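Cross-check.
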Amino acid sequence: MFVDKGPAFQQLAAKIADEIVAGTYPEGTAVPSATDFAVFHQMNPATASKGVNLLVEMGALYKKRGIGMFVAAGARDLLRSQRREEFRKQYMEPLLREARVLEIDVAELHHMIDEHEEDET
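Predicted model, tokenized:
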């Protein structure tokens, strides 16, 4: 099951969103039903449905009555845009705040990032 913090329906929605961003579910393709997600993740069907509906409300998924749930056009860009904003708030703002406290200018930050990238390769 899910191990992250937060409600299971939000974790399911995040997992489906990750798969849309990764291209596992391309735009216009069907995604498994809430029941399928519930069975696979061993969760209550109502919880799974709530997670899927969260993505419907965001505009990433849409329902075709009697057919199933599909990835909306532009869903990948929508989700990537939202995640970039979350990234900025969660990582960049604290990084820049700490850099100011430590008197690290932008050029030095760039240099630190470049060095880190070189170490990773």
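The chain has five helices and three strands. The longest strand covers residues 61-64. Passed to J.P. for a second look.
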